[in-house]
Write a structure and sequence with these properties.
Structural class of chain B: mainly alpha
Number of strands of chain B: 0
Number of domains of chain B: 1
Largest sheet of chain A: 5 strands, mixed
Order of helices and strands of chain B: HHHHHHHHHH
CATH architecture of chain B: Orthogonal Bundle
Radius of gyration of chain B: 19 Å
Number of domains of chain A: 2
CATH superfamily of the largest domain in chain A: Periplasmic binding protein-like II
Order of helices and strands of chain A: HEHEHEEEEHHEHEEEHH
CATH topology of chain B: MetI-like fold
Oligomer: heterodimer
Strand content of chain B: under 5%
Number of strands of chain A: 10
Structural class of chain A: alpha/beta
CATH architecture of the largest domain in chain A: 3-Layer(aba) Sandwich
Distance between the termini of chain B: 35 Å
CATH class of the largest domain in chain A: Alpha Beta
Helix content of chain A: 25-40%
Helix content of chain B: over 70%
Distance between the termini of chain A: 62 Å
Shape of chain B: globular
Strand content of chain A: 25-35%
Radius of gyration of chain A: 20 Å
Chain lengths: 234, 213
């Protein structure tokens, strides 16, 4: 019995990836840009909806650094915000070649019209989209037409496949899908402050803190700017 | 608890198709001969052995709004399956059908052909022979098949999320467990999990009763 347990543990250990790897959680909207960041050490990125990643981090997932697409209050007890790495803006997109419905016409669009936004509160893009639509006074009329994506790239995919007529994503997402095109940027009076904070767990190891320092350095911010992210609030 | 209500609705709609179709397919597999049967036998297992994400993705390519069949459904009938409970039922049906068909095949294969021959020799027409002899003898096995198919449909997660998406009418209990857990709503995730555990144990007991007959 004891021998069987030892064998089982040995097998499990060999399935686990090398302990030298530093896992960094990142909002999925940063996927292409982060591939160009070269933080020190053997870094592995874990992408997803920021809220999902924060909830995993809170429950002890093996990453001590998280670059989220919005503030994550649930991390308040276990992590500290070190810097803002970039900002972004919200845009309305449609499937390439399909009819376009402007921000101001979303409320009066027919009932068959579907608007894809992120699943709130896990997906920050969805939280920002709701906030913008509320400021435009359109939320109550739009809400019944809303379908939810499980992260912002899922929202983009729903639009690309035509399962949703339009969707609300970040300005930097538009270029990722060749099947999607811009309708319009969010009107200035409804523009949310889309911000990417870098969180570092209070229990982070030295190597993990070094990664966070690298992400907060001007060079990393320049890489993000070259991918269309903003280096100042929108 | 609305997630359970959504689950029941989705599973019930799936079973309306899965039970008769799977039973007919099982009958063919049990009695059919030749190359066609061999092909059908191999194909019927595909949705069971494929990863559910692949099943969901293939359904999306086929039945999505711009899919091969989906575009027809949308333009001719105004039917859109993604983000609808019908879409969730299709995903559940796709993964449950193999269990129903293979279970029904076993049930029909166990029926004593001699009894059917006696009935036929006594002048009973084939349809009546099936109704009076074959079906009652296969019934316990069909019950097992229906139970297994129901459980698989009830537990469907991957194909549903990939194909039907997550919205009010597709938010079945397994999807709600996942999203409640992600949100940190453990009370909801746990209570739904317990409900699913009870349903599974109940079904296992039912299976035992069926197979002892």
């Amino acid at each position: 019995m004891k021998r069987a347990l030892m064998l089982l543990s040995a097998m499990l250990v060999s399935c686990k990836h090398s302990p030298a790897t530093i896992t960094v959680g990142a909002a999925i909207s940063l996927k292409e840009a982060t591939a160009e960041l070269k933080p020190p050490g053997d870094v592995e990125w874990a992408y997803g909806a920021s809220g999902d990643l924060a909830s995993q981090m809170e429950r002890g997932a093996p990453f001590a650094v998280l670059v989220a697409a919005g503030e994550q209050p649930r991390l308040a007890k276990i992590a500290t915000e070190q810097c803002t790495i970039a900002w972004n803006t919200l845009v309305l997109v449609k499937r390439r070649g399909s009819a376009s419905v402007a921000w101001s016409d979303l409320a009066t669009a027919p009932t068959s019209f579907r608007l894809a936004i992120g699943l709130a509160p896990q997906v920050p893009a969805g939280v920002y989209a709701e906030e913008a639509l509320r400021k435009l006074g359109a939320w109550d009329a739009v809400a019944p037409k809303v379908v939810r994506g499980t992260n912002v790239r899922n929202v983009l995919d729903l639009v690309a496949r035509g399962e949703a007529d339009e969707g609300v994503v970040y300005a930097t997402d538009v270029a990722v899908s060749k099947d999607v095109e811009l309708v319009a940027e969010v009107p200035a009076n409804a523009r949310p402050n889309v911000r990417y904070p870098v969180y570092v767990a209070n229990a982070a190891r030295k190597e993990e803190k070094d990664v966070a320092d690298h992400l907060c350095a001007p060079a990393a911010k320049r890489v993000l700017a070259s991918h269309g992210f903003l280096d100042h609030p929108p | 608890m609305s997630a359970l209500a959504v689950s029941l609705r989705v599973v019930a709609c799936a079973l309306v198709f899965v039970v008769p179709l799977g039973a007919a397919l099982g009958f063919y597999l049990a009695r059919g001969r030749g190359a066609m049967r061999a092909v059908a036998d191999a194909l019927v297992l595909v949705p069971l052995v494929l990863p559910p994400s692949v099943v969901g993705y293939l359904l999306l390519l086929l039945l999505g709004r711009h899919g091969a069949i989906g575009s027809f459904l949308d333009t001719a009938l105004g039917v859109r399956l993604v983000f609808s409970s019908a879409g969730a039922s299709i995903a559940a049906a796709a993964v449950a059908l193999p269990l129903m068909a293979k279970g029904a095949e076993a049930a029909f294969a166990r029926v004593d052909r001699g009894l059917e021959e006696v009935a036929a020799a006594n002048g009973l027409p084939p349809r009546e022979t099936f109704r009076i002899v074959t079906l009652p003898l296969a019934l316990p096995g069909l019950g097992v098949a229906i139970t297994l198919a129901t459980l698989r449909a009830l537990g469907e997660f991957g194909a549903t999320l990939t194909f039907a998406g997550y919205t009010k009418s597709t938010a079945t209990a397994p999807l709600e467990v996942y999203f409640a857990m992600q949100l940190g709503d453990d009370a909801r995730a746990l209570s739904l999990s317990i409900a699913l555990v009870i349903a599974s144990v109940g079904a296992a007991l039912l299976l035992r009763a069926w197979s002892r007959r």
